[in-house]
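Chain A, query sequence.
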Amino acid sequence: MRLAVLAMVLGLMAPATAAPAQAVDSDEPTDAELAELHAAIGESEVEGVAWYTDKAAGEVVVMADSTVTGGERNDVRRAAGDKIGALDLQRLEGEFRPVRQPGSPGATIQGSGTRCSLGFNVRRGPKLYLITAGHCGNDVASWRIGRKNTQKIGPTVKSRFPGGDYALVRYDSRSLVRPSGFVPGKAYVGRKVTRVGSTTGKHSGVVTAVGVTVRYPGGDLVRNLIQTNICAEPGDSGGPLSSGRHALGITSGSAGGNCPAPGLSLYQPIKPVLEAYGVQFYR
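Chain A, predicted structure.
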């Protein structure tokens, strides 16, 4: 980046005449131009892509999964228009999908033939709830827990997907253990994190991007996600992403990466969920 810099060492040298400072043109895109490019990628309506703005690099990074054809990648390039120089179009071997698992045995939480993962336990007044993925909540009216699917949890109270990806499930059973103990945290690039899912258990890695938008198969668009280099597999949806006691998000989807090998996974940040439902963590 070319910057115009005007420097003076006080007390050592005072020029007789000072030339006026002049702005130097920069080839780097402005924040407004990057925002326009980010929006233009969404207007291309290509499925199987996720994208985010990297202001430090001055570019919009677009990841196209294995379902995206050469013609569709060209659609993305055409959408960039005269800002194509700020486009970093990458190809992934995997496929972006919400990581729910229909009809699988050994579920952590399941109902209506869908298996997902319990995220975080929260409360609103005297009532207790759990948070899971919205694409799970859309499919399931009433949940059960346990490998034999015998213990009732309760109903899905609210669910959002697409746009966001989160759901609220009420505990109707008082006999279930419902630990909490987290506090809300913020994801940032490079933060060490751990994900837990009902299929693959516990895996750790780092946050690789924030503010990610993905268009899942079927055109479902989800915005402002956290991206990590951790694997995730079907059935892990809704599981917690945390850093120590800090709750960061819940699993939304992935683009392959058979555990325990590293992968690429996406998470709904937790703070907007707490605000949307008026719930909080407890000890």
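The chain has a mean pLDDT of 87. Residues 180-271 form a domain with the Thrombin, subunit H fold (CATH 2.40.10.10).
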